[in-house]
Amino acid sequence: MQDLSGLARKEIMSPTLTDIQQARERIKPYAHRTPVFTNESLNKHVNTQVYLKCENLQKVGAFKFRGACNAVFSLNDEEAARGVCTHSSGNHAQALALAARMRGIPAYIVMPSNAPQVKKDAVRDYDGQITFCAPTLEAREATLAKVVEETGSVFVHPHNDERVIAGQGTAALELLEDVPDLDVIITPVGGGGLLSGTAIAAYEIKKGIHLVAGEPEMADDAFRSLKSGTIMPSVNPKTIADGLLTSLGTLTFPIIRQYVEQIVTVSEEGIIASMKFIWERAKIVIEPSAAVAIGVLWEGKIDLAGLKVGVILSGGNVDLDNLPWR
Amino acid sequence: MQDLSGLARKEIMSPTLTDIQQARERIKPYAHRTPVFTNESLNKHVNTQVYLKCENLQKVGAFKFRGACNAVFSLNDEEAARGVCTHSSGNHAQALALAARMRGIPAYIVMPSNAPQVKKDAVRDYDGQITFCAPTLEAREATLAKVVEETGSVFVHPHNDERVIAGQGTAALELLEDVPDLDVIITPVGGGGLLSGTAIAAYEIKKGIHLVAGEPEMADDAFRSLKSGTIMPSVNPKTIADGLLTSLGTLTFPIIRQYVEQIVTVSEEGIIASMKFIWERAKIVIEPSAAVAIGVLWEGKIDLAGLKVGVILSGGNVDLDNLPWR
């Protein structure tokens, strides 16, 4: 029986560097090897050497495609034939729909009925089949269970899934190939899929590298969880970084506890200023969640002066008609 | 005596492919080799294979750096010591200031007193020395003449200068190295520096390649000039593509007449829609002038179905507080 709660199943193991390396080979034909950009204005402004891993230029505009793609192409033919499913109204939904389409299998997406039209359209553009539910946790889980029962499809959790975590770790693998002498890697943290995959890849490749995560002050569950040593879920978080509203999972939390040095919270103002700066100076579109990682440097709460810092820009999906500096 | 009118001097010759190749070697230590991006959504939307040469990711955020850099580093030490000067309130001013700073010489920029503050700041950021003038053609030329007299600096015209044209042609050189089997190259056209440099490079490398330019309907002097066979200046043009307000020069016009197949005009709506699409889908920030080249495909006035089309995205300098879809 599938676990649909997002809680760890007994048989789930934290992925290893080998899993991440295999994921990289598996997704290679489908995912972009995204470029790493540098920007002198940014370096000057934050007094470090920053290397931007541009997952905003990834398929579907976010790193989420790596994990979804690895999960979909990890399935054997029999499993795959029944399709995949998830609950998400964000980048993971689009990513899973596209990966499934690439494999020629259906993707069933459970989405709250009040999700923005643009997100519904995006999933449908990738041939995802949407089932709407009421915007509550209970309705979401009940609807997902019903979809699984009716279709036999395989649940791919947005972050609490070892195949997904391994996939997300491939970005750091590429980044460290391109810039082997990094001192620090910064990612944003929401559910922790990107952060835990990055942590495993980076630390196993380069012991002693510093792993830092940026989190919105207004959704600081990971910060509090790491401090208290137990998962402290967010309660009704409100931040412009809408990709970081979810809390850590039972699978991602222990990995993050093991490897991640520090979680730095970033103010809403810092997120917006960082986002605008990157658009203006680096000429790339990043979403607020990606700007949170820049915000760590921007707000200068930790001293990284003179270091070589890799930043994983998680995505670039924004509503251009609703920009935060309007 | 220097020619300050932007009219052709007797000794000025149209640059050759060799000049462009030399320019490329000359600017290599200073300019970025910009990436070439593809985007499936765009390809699908316009029914061609599009290759985006990202000059928005060039130094100062525009191809203009190539021409300015080539001009500055073409000077002998004696000429260089006196500095360079120009009249511009746009990307060329910033480009010349940065190139001059890289050579360690002064750049004198004549700018109308009513230029936006953000443009004045940008030039000063690159240590350009601004002399303001009244916002008329006469004042501009008189002020420039005075600057030259006082400083002995070398005038580098924004487009009507063979060193500048050769520099701008280096983008096409790189593009054709990366994608040798292009059928078409599209650039925007304002003064014609980018278009004429591109035309020489592309046609001399690959006879039979089609050269097309996009121009705002509201500033269609090049379209009318090519049609009439004589330079027809714009009279008070008003377009969102503020980099394309200038008219063709005496040096660029004959080159364009010789090589360029067609100038296609693009509506303001087409420019804005193209710009927004590239931001949303390709996740890169382009300025309206760059969007004009996409607009040629977007509005479908010429049939390029199934062809391989290179588009030079000329720049990415925009005021994020004044976006056209607000």
Oligomer: homodimer
| SSE topology string of chain A | HEHEHHEHEHEHEHHEHEHHEHHE
Calculate the mean pLDDT score of chain A and round it. Answer: 94
**Backbone shape of chain A:** globular
| Total domain modules of chain A | 2
Largest sheet of chain A: 6 strands, mixed
The spatial strand order of the largest sheet of chain A comes to: 1-2-10-7-8-9
Description:
Two copies of one chain form a homodimer. The first copy, chain A, has 326 residues and is of the alpha/beta class. Chain A folds into two domains: 17-62 and 163-322, 3-Layer(aba) Sandwich (Rossmann fold); 65-160, Rossmann fold. In chain A, 44% of the residues lie in helices and 15% in strands. Chain A has a six-stranded mixed β-sheet, sandwiched between helices. In chain A, strands 5-4-3-6 form a four-stranded parallel β-sheet, with helices on both faces. In chain A, helix 3 (64-74) crosses helix 8 (162-168). The longest helix of chain A has 15 residues, at 137-151. The mean pLDDT of chain A is 94. Chain A binds chain B through residues 35, 37, 56-57, 61, 276, 279-280, 283-286, 316, 320-321, 323, 325-326, and chain B through 35, 37, 56-57, 61, 276, 279-280, 283-286, 316, 320-321, 323, 325-326.
Write a short abstract of this structure.
Chain A has 326 residues and is α/β, with parallel strands linked by helices. Chain A contains 14 helices and ten strands.
Task: Provide tags for this entry.
homodimer, 326 residues, Rossmann fold, 6-stranded mixed β-sheet, 4-stranded parallel β-sheet
